[in-house]
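fwd from M.: "can u put these together and see what the complex looks like"

so here's what she sent:
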Amino acid sequence: MGERDFIAARLAPLATTAAARGLSDDAAVWSPPLGRDLVFTHDVLACGVHYLPSDPPSDIAWKLLAVNLSDLAAMGARPSGVLMGLGLSIAEDDIWRAAFADGLGRALRHFGVALWGGDTVTGLAQAVLGLTAIGHVAPGKALSRNGAQVGDGVWVSGTIGDAGLGLAIARGKATPDQRLLNRFRRPQPRLLLGQALVGTATACMDISDGLLIDADRLAQASGVGIEIDLMAIPATAAASDAERLVRATAGDDYELLFTAPPGVDLAAIGGNTPVTRIGTVQAGAGVQIRGEQGALPLPERLGWEH
Amino acid sequence: MGERDFIAARLAPLATTAAARGLSDDAAVWSPPLGRDLVFTHDVLACGVHYLPSDPPSDIAWKLLAVNLSDLAAMGARPSGVLMGLGLSIAEDDIWRAAFADGLGRALRHFGVALWGGDTVTGLAQAVLGLTAIGHVAPGKALSRNGAQVGDGVWVSGTIGDAGLGLAIARGKATPDQRLLNRFRRPQPRLLLGQALVGTATACMDISDGLLIDADRLAQASGVGIEIDLMAIPATAAASDAERLVRATAGDDYELLFTAPPGVDLAAIGGNTPVTRIGTVQAGAGVQIRGEQGALPLPERLGWEH
């Protein structure tokens, strides 16, 4: 099946809104909601780099959408539509492509997001999948990394390090556990939490490369220091300090990391998504960590450095 | 230079508008112009497929931007911003990356378009470059492929087939000619013409895969037939019928193909961009061609079928 047939048979049926024009025009046309700022992100997943060739195609489609929606969540935005740039190799055969499109359709429906357009290119040496997500937020209210204030609490959503454990399982290096595998393959962008944080959080970002390295980036962007209590980091199971450090540098969490004034009660802000205070914004620069026995040296590797 | 250093040193200096937030947040934030529809497109260029590894990096950056702006032109839209997904291999070394970024900066300034964000991934087997372009148009006025009416004139901008000749030159298979080479490597999106056609053209698209195949697609989308006079197709130099057919199937023109009611005088609509009437919309289906001796059989290959 060529590019055009794939688009007509598999992707056009997913592009059901008027904006997409049935994928038959040169571009999509959308009337944005009145009085809202628009939020744009574009992330790329490459086969063998961001996912494993053996990952199910429907999970790859989920992840491609989810990691981009996670960026919108980090800005406090509500998603509207996406454009997709699919670069495929011969390894992504018709069966793979059909399963990818099925999974994409389910993911779009799950998140209530429209497929507006894009491009498909075949015959590449390696699959490279890009997606642009467009969302909206109240004017001037988008969250940012640069507003953390000394004295703010530092918070995360969900549990940290699960995706790293899931990756080890996917590689056959750990005991199978479907929940942890799904945490790697099917991340849950924290869209409702991000929207709830608008007007409350002083800074926010999503954790993609590892809690410590991303906290370091947020601290740098805000011109502050961040102290994290290693024992407070929410984890799926009890763990030693060393194991906690691994989880805090594993990446692929797609949880939100945010700061908020110390007096604000955030216990219920995430609805079904638990949020946990893990540290404090301090004067200074960069991230520091404390363990059960007091200050801990930073590990050499804070997370994924691209 | 790693991904992060490349972004900080080469791309962030190009992202000068507030919307980009210095490329330091998870997404871009933009206040759209009031009372306009937004137009979105995403095209991918792969090394060895859409451009040659030997093409100058600054020209590749130009082409990546230009082919996407050409889609906006086809909709009658004015461009605002872009997001870029760069997948790079080891072949795109620091020198290549610097030259690409320089060329991108020049192209962005030339077209008055802002870099809002994106993603860079290295270590791929082959360079794969995606770009999302966002523009705007008067509400309900975006051009489309599906409005051609029986009796309309069929028009093109510029000259057709130059890029095909330029590709032959780039491959060392034809006598060097910088102007034709530039027509392949540095296409000129017909933005002002596209905007001028809003309210006048009944259908419009850009010619990327070849005049004949794209005319066939416009005819299909509109549910009409299109007859093209081979001798009327504007070309850089005199040519035989056979040569004209080659040019009409060569692709990469990025000229506009459009239809307009027969009585409308379009001579001056393109400003400095010449427009030429090349045929007529008829009842029927698909594209037909006439040569000096009357009706001609369609060539087996109408253009690039992806």
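replying to her w this: Residues 193 and 270 of chain A are 5 Å apart (CA to CA).
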